[in-house]
Amino acid sequence: MIQTFFDNFSPQNNALIWLIGAFALAFVIAHQTFPSILYVTMRKRLMDVPDSRSMHIDKTPTLGGIGIFFSIVVVMTTTGAMLNTKLLLLVMGGLTILFFLGLKDDLTVLSARNKFIGQLFAAVLLIVFTDTRIIGFSKIFGVEELPYWISIFFTLFVYILIINAYNLIDGVDGLAGSVGLVISAVFLVLFYNSGNLSLATISVALIGALLAFLRLNMSARRKIFMGDTGSMIVGFLLAFFTISFISQSQTNVDSEYFRASPALALAMLFYPLMDTFRIFFIRIFVLKQSPFKADKNHIHHRYIQMGYTHLQTTFIIVITNLIVVLIAFNMLHLNLNMQIGLLLLYGTILFFAPIIFKRKFHTFKKKRELSLNGRRSSAVK
């Protein structure tokens, strides 16, 4: 009976049911896995000890990436036979490489060089064997198609950029998980609408895993961090989604995103990319130090310093990034160069608006207090 069901069941004809099932499976597995990870990390004292850069004050388990990896791989394994098996196996290969690199970094220390080599190898695996790459600039600055080898190296650069940009925003409770969840949700809709069920399945599996993770990541008592294991895995998948979306749009002249895919990708990843370029600029040109030296100059750190809570900071950044995405979808009719220019302008204003607002509010509050103190002094006299 079960064999008859599978012989007659088509994921493509039941896409919505299929995706709901993949989501439920990922969420349940992650939800059941995290308590075990918490137990082991606390018994073995595999905790992150706060230092001068930390935004937390208590020792916290950092192996949440194990649960994220496990749930995604189980979904891909169980659904692979009915989808694009080659693609799913290659993605799992890349994820596995980064999983062990991240795990080593969380448990001991992994050099930046070895992490970089591992990221390159995982990216090359997908680029070469699936030929999923950015084939051109869609006439950005007049550039259309790139020569093959330049296309390969540029796609590699995008992979490394997105993986590490995502890793850098993992500094406030719920931020990395929420940003990854929202970006994955947008990609899920895009892949579902284009009929790419394999990519939609990976997207929905990541959503399920991140939802289960966020439940504990934002908990006051049983907190867990995704660590480098999780940030590299999620960053790698977001990079893969981005490049896959741009590639499938650029190779389909009938796609409504044929020209606009780079702008939409920029909008979805706006916060991680903007924060990374900003922090590198500050470290290199202002502080005159290595761009890879960790500090507390990220935008989310500035929000905290201005008086926003962790939850408020996460909420503001996620909502702002969603607004940037909506702006991008409403500019599809414009020239691509114009879209990117306006996104950079609007996005920068939106992300710095909360800081400006807090400054104005503090100034107003201070003036009001001085005015009230002056009136009291006059009344006493």
From TrEMBL:
Membrane topology field: Multi-pass membrane protein
Cofactor(s) this protein cannot do without: Mg(2+)
PROSITE patterns (alphabetical): MRAY_2
Intracellular or extracellular location(s): Cell membrane
Key word Transit peptide present: no
Signal peptide: none
A Pfam cross-reference name: Glycos_transf_4
Gene Ontology process terms (BP): cell wall macromolecule biosynthetic process; cell wall organization; lipopolysaccharide biosynthetic process
Binding site for Mg(2+): 167, 228
Alphabetized UniProt keyword annotations: Cell membrane, Magnesium, Membrane, Metal-binding, Transferase, Transmembrane, Transmembrane helix
GO molecular function, one term: metal ion binding
GO cellular component: plasma membrane
Transmembrane segments: 15-41, 62-81, 87-104, 116-136, 148-168, 175-192, 198-217, 229-246, 266-286, 307-332, 338-357
Protein name per UniProt: UDP-N-acetylmuramyl pentapeptide phosphotransferase/UDP-N-acetylglucosamine-1-phosphate transferase
Organism: Gelidibacter sediminis
